[in-house]
Amino acid sequence: MSNPISYPVPWRLIFNLWPNMLHRTPTSVDSFSASICALHHPPALITGLENLPPSPRFILAANHYQRPGVWIMHPASVLTQAIRTHYGPADPPVRWMVTANWPPLKLGPLRFRSPGDILLPRVADALACYPVSFAGANPAYTARSLRRILREAPLLNRPLGIFPEGVAGTAGKLTDPIPGVDRLLSHLAKHGWPVQPAGISEGQGRLIVRFGPTISCAALLAAPDAAKLTMQKIAELIA
Question: What is the CATH number of domain 11-238?
Fold first, then answer.
């Protein structure tokens, strides 16, 4: 990899969320993601915007591009701002599904609740995200968010953002989608929500985002596994 970028956690911006985290009130996702993108020099290279569908009611699916030195919020913010620029002002520009419930820490026979299990749900609330659990650590927790997504989907007028691999995905290596994504994509496809794949990579010292052709609802419903089909389309964008 030539000229690897370094985009760590922007602690100053995270710290500014504390009032919202404390009171569980939303902040401007548009402003927050724009502030993160302002840290990128040079800015991300975005291609394939002509593939975005006329309506912003779709599932935005991308590979989980994170590695040491690049926090996932950076590529997520690039995607968020690309959607905002293309479809016009809205807040939030994208409603993301995020991991916000972690397994307990273990020290011999002792088990302690993870600090992330306490803080991340509040970050998710502040950024208008749908929180889910880590790799099936708390199925009931995830089920509540999925029911909420399905309940609110008819009212949403912006994309639902998802990283099908979950936190297992890393930069430069795709993994299988996590369990449950196939059912979610298929259910939303029945209600008219196609999938818009996006491939994330990096090169020449910047993030690169490439949008591919939209996966139609008919194609999702005809596929043996809608999540695997989505990952195949994402793989084609970063090959």
Answer: 3.40.1130
